[in-house]
Amino acid sequence: MSDKKHIHLIGICGTAMASLAGMLQQRGFRVTGSDAAAYPPMSEFLLSLGIPVAQPFDAKNLNPRPDLVVVGNAISRGNMELEYILNQRIPFCSLPQILHDEFLRGKEVLVVAGTHGKTTTTSMLAWIFHTAGQQPSFLIGGIAENFGSSFRLGQGKHFILEGDEYDTAFFDKGPKFLHYFPDAAILTSVEFDHADIYKDLDAVETAFKRLVNLVPQRGRIVAFDTGESLERCLARAFCPVERYGAAAKSEWRVTNVRLEPTRTTWTVVQHGEPWADFEFTLGGEYNVWNATAAAVIAAHYEISKEEIAAALKTFKSVKRRLEVRAQVNGITIIDDFAHHPTAIAGTLTALRSRFPGARIWAILEPRSNTLRRNVLQNELAQSLALADEVVVANVFKSDAIPAAERLDLAAMAAQVQKHGRRARIVPEVDGIVQLVAPEMRPGDVVAILSNGGFGGIYEKLPQRLQSLAGSSNHPAEAPAQA
Questions:
Q1: For the whole model, what pTM was predicted?
Q2: Which residues are bridge partners to 447 per DSSP?
Q3: pLDDT given at position 474
Q4: Residue 325 to residues 333, 335, 346, 436: CA-CA distances in angstroms?
Q5: Region 78-102: what's the mean pLDDT?
Q6: Do 371 and 235 belong together in one domain?
Q7: DSSP state string for 338-357
């Protein structure tokens, strides 16, 4: 890479791509990028780094000619920039390839993988290593609030990395995490997801089995203790495997979990003996599992339980994970990235313990490649029914999904209502805001669930609530507010 001066990233606003851009810039490369559209938090992150982002895609964005192009995995044949680099024979590679070759060589690589919890667990692990003075490098699929960043290039020997099972690039359909060659790994869960690239659960399991097969005998896997898919994936591991969770047989057993409105506490028992008490400000039982996994790996790298406890107590969160975006007239608006029925259920359950007695709204944009399909439709309805009020927008880019495979919104809403909850389908964001804002009352908690920008609802809903509050407090000003 010493002769590569200018690197251009196609699809730069993805969380991992934006992080890579920052890492390359820190290494001294000139970095540019392009995307179809940018939205927070990664658009703001790139702006803070001074990395130019061209919008939309256009061949002219590759002028002057870069020395190397990194092609994001969301980029397909037909993209005008991709076609240009193929025609012009400009050197290109994938994100995992350049990450391995430029940053992971010579490091002790710790990979956090699983269907759920990767981003938060990776953030916790990086924070534990950082506060213990280990100076780790890390790459996270989100903005870790303790660092104000999704990456860091540290002087220590460890590289802590979120391992994504999604495909690598248009020319490499294998999972990203197979490029990372971990020395140790956390495996949080294995469920069916990414229905656009995996045919079924067997295919997902095959990917994770291959990851398990990469961990050397001297390495270690720390895995959750529940799930038949996990058991199958771990069956042929060549390295030691340790389990965490609530099962009596687990080496690291979680007990005495207390989910309170402002904090969560729990105890970890090692081989039947009390090992450590932990607490943090996060909600949700799933975050207890995530933190315990990070604690176990850290302990194996000789970080003391006292240092681990101190780090977790000061751990904040990750952007777009139960993030409070606004509080208007006693109404709390939460932004959460949940885009799988299991994650949605975890989010809504966490809000129940965090806001006891509150009326919970779930406003969903079916945007991920799995949620846009009907493959988990029943599970989605069950998860949404954990809210008191459910509002669902149109399926994102529904025309791209064959009708027979597409999420049936009407049927899904009917299933939610069978669980005793009201569910309404409102196609567009402006309609959602106009409908729900007048119905909301002080004490309500609104969970906005999307893995995208959701048409600006994070700004539009608070503005509408403020407008209504202003109208009710100052009737004479109502015409001006309208």
A1: 0.85
A2: 334, 362
A3: 35
A4: 6, 6, 19, 17
A5: 97
A6: no
A7: --SHHHHHHHHHHHHHHSTT
